[in-house]
Amino acid sequence: KNEVEQSPQNLTAQEGEFITINCSYSVGISALHWLQQHPGGGIVSLFMLSSGKKKHGRLIATINIQEKHSSLHITASHPRDSAVYICAALMDSNYQLIWGAGTKLIIKP
Amino acid sequence: NAGVTQTPKFQVLKTGQSMTLQCAQDMNHNSMYWYRQDPGMGLRLIYYSASEGTTDKGEVPNGYNVSRLNKREFSLRLESAAPSQTSVYFCASSVLRHSSLRGMGYEQYFGPGTRLTVT
Prior knowledge:
Number of strands of chain A: 11
Largest sheet of chain A: 6 strands, mixed
Number of helices of chain A: 0
Distance between the termini of chain A: 36 Å
Helix content of chain A: under 10%
Oligomer: heterodimer
Order of helices and strands of chain A: EEEEEEEEEEE
Shape of chain B: globular
Order of helices and strands of chain B: EEEEEEEEEEE
Radius of gyration of chain A: 13 Å
């Protein structure tokens, strides 16, 4: 069993829909890292959070340390949000990042 | 700021050839990382350098060597390339590995990637 699990693996939605991507982990962590990988391959850091919620534009990330779960939400989704979204857990034992396999999101116009 | 740069962007090698992937960052980050990404799989850490002068193995170090040349540059070398090393390679950096701010400082910034094919 992977230590970091993302769901769903693939998600297709219509423009304007509210999107939720989930990340669950089984190890003790200090923080959770959300990143976006564009269709062209580039990887961009979105959030690093250790508690509560962070918001940037239409993106919201939440984390519940007790439940070992984080979510990434996209409001008013747009085709340009189409990308692979990756979560990575920062282990509190050795500060290594454990990577999820990613969620491929397609937003149709 | 250019951020994290990698060269080359694409490379084709024959089995047994050697090459070095170059990575540089201009953000004054302490830590640097090399990852590989294969289709359908997540990022896998090859080697990392917590600070200038130190390097450590990651999850998949076999067949690779690294050099932290200075604070800015971290290179990855394939001494004898194999088809199993066909992959996309990413370099990343972060401010520091140990921080008094919980989790902060570990946010990683990525280069554009190198697509390597070994035939």
